[in-house]
Amino acid sequence: MNDSMTARLYEDLELAAGQGCTRGVGLPFIQSVVSILVLAGLWVTGRDHLLRMAIPAMTMLTGAALYFCQPLLYIEYSLWVWFLAPLVRRVVDWHFGYIEPNFVLASPLLVSAVAGLTLVMPSRRANERIPAAFLCCGGAILYGFTVGMALHPSGETIYGLFNWLCPLLFGLHLVLHWRQYDEHRAVISRTFLWGALILGLYGIYQFISPPAWDLYWLENVMQGGQNESFGRPDAFQVRVWSSLNSPGPFANMMMVGLLLLLILRSRPKLPAGVAGYLSFLLSSVRTAWLSWFIGLFLILRTMKPRALVRICLSIVLLIACVLPFASDPRVATLISDRVSSFTDLGHDASFGERVDMYQTLLTDIIHTPFGDGLKNRELSRGFALDSGILIALFSLGWLGTFLYGAGVLAIFVGEDRSLKRLYPFSVVAKAIVIAILVQVIGGNIFVNVTGAMFWTFAGLYVSARKHHCDQMVACGRDAWD
User: Fold this and answer.
1) What CA–CA distance (Å, rounded) separates 26 from 33?
2) Do 450 and 250 meet the contact criterion of CB atoms below 8 Å apart?
3) Spatial separation of the C-alpha atoms in residues 463 and 241, rounded to whole Å
4) Which of 55, 122, 352, 463 has a CA 20 to 30 Å removed from the CA of 35?
5) Which residue in 187, 162, 192 sits closest to 177, CA to CA?
């Protein structure tokens, strides 16, 4: 792998800015101003029910305006809505009162759903085929939705459709616009760079001095029957979840950002790495820690010695910067207790519960071959369904799960050997997809923000392959001429 693996991020961003949409920012700006005025008016007048419905509506309209006028900003905006919507929900609940379910959390789904317009836009080329991976997974989701509507038609099933399908549509949008691969790569890298910095800093602040809205939300969650998996609502006692909805999705977001930081050169890289790694440790999510090591291994194994040394030195520097903070007894105790559980799985309650869950629920799955449809199923026989495999089998049935699994495997089919050398970012995208995929045993990785990240980088990886094939064909024509 050549030195382009660590090409400067800002050079990529200049490329993205120079080749973006030139139709101006008029409509998105007007829509943003109108959205702010509407939401501010509802906040001031105390119309909290309308406010909770207006937030997803306004975010979707703003996303639609960006989709048509500023496509690159639409991608960045969509990711930021995924990152920040749960925080907005907590602030609204803190001011007006806790409500569950909450329409604010539909905001990122609706913004990502806008990407589905790519399938029907006249600008889409008639000969542009949808990859088999997306067809299989989309077909499995529609199968689960059909079963759900037949067995128990409800808003819950419709929400399940959005929850499964919208992240996939966002990734498909990137694939169908593969000619803008370089710009997409740059803008997504920038988003995760600043996301690691901002969400990391907020996560550290949340651990040291939890804001009132986070404490209020956590107290209500614990009253709703949740155990202390989020920690306790006290300083230095919470498991960090930053602006997201729980420690797991936050840790996965940070895992993705930290893997991207390995190959980027930019001024905010060091502070983003320090804030990111410290908050990542404070989340205490072991599966995300393991995924980071897997992603790191997949990236390092493809590198030439020079790039390998550069990344190893950057990791050592980051460790040296994080160590003084992590050595604080209040922090070190939390991290060491979580790390020690790796070597004592026999006494790990969560590991034992997961084993019991598989043994008990596999019997139910055998007797429900068609599945239950896209229900928001969180409990079964007293077990919390935190297994992506079991959730897929219950939601999609045997046939749907097989089809979805075949689609996921199809993501990795068709790679050319020269892709890693000519498109080094594709190595990172593939490593991120695999790092997220290995967590399927411990949670549903195909929905919500984790699903959005999975399909975003799956889309980038497939886009890199299509872009590479196009360049090879072009080079062949030039040689023939």
Assistant:
1) 11
2) no
3) 31
4) 122
5) 187
Q: Quick one: CA torsion of 454, 455, 457, 460, rounded to 10 degrees?
A: 170
Instruction: List 231's β-bridge partners, or say none.
Output: 238
Tokens representing 374 are 């896209």
Q: Is the pLDDT of residue 159 over 80?
A: yes
Q: Report the half-sphere exposure of 297 (CA within 13 A, side-chain side).
A: 8
Look up residue 119 and give its amino acid: L
C-alpha angle 165-171-173 in degrees, rounded to nearest 5: 100
Contact yes or no for 463/181 (Cβ under 8 A): yes
Give 279's strand partners. none
Question: Which two structure tokens, joined as six digits, stand for 469?
Answer: 């094939």
Q: Do the beta carbons of residue 373 and residue 396 sit within 8 Å?
A: no
Q: Which residues contact 402 (CB under 8 A, 6 or more apart)?
A: none
87 closest CA partner among 55, 42, 120: 55
Q: How far is CA 374 from CA 104, 135, 317, 453, in A?
A: 21, 18, 46, 20
Rounded Cα distance, 51 and 41, in Å: 9
Please name the amino acid found at residue 132.
A
In angstroms, the CA 394 to CA 351 distance is 21
Torsion over CA of 83, 86, 89 and 94, rounded to 10 degrees?
-120
In 3-state terms, what secondary structure has residue 72? helix
CA angle 264, 466, 254 (to 5 degrees): 35
Q: For 381, left (φ over 0), alpha (ψ -120 to 50), or beta?
A: left
Identify whether the C-beta of residue 335 lies closer than 8 Å to the C-beta of residue 122: no
Choose among 382, 368, 395: nearest CA to 451: 395
Q: pTM for this one? A: 0.90
What does the pLDDT read at residue 384? 66
Token pair, residue 202, equals 């907020």
In single-letter form, the type of residue at position 377 comes to R
Side-chain-side CA neighbours of 107 within 13 Å: the count stands at 26
- Residues ≥6 apart with Cβ < 8 Å to 252: 285, 288, 291, 436, 439, 445, 449, 450, 453
> Residues 231-280: pLDDT tens digits?
888 888 899 999 999 999 999 999 999 999 998 888 889 999 999 999 99
* 3-state percent breakdown (helix, strand, coil) of the chain, nearest 5: 75, 0, 20
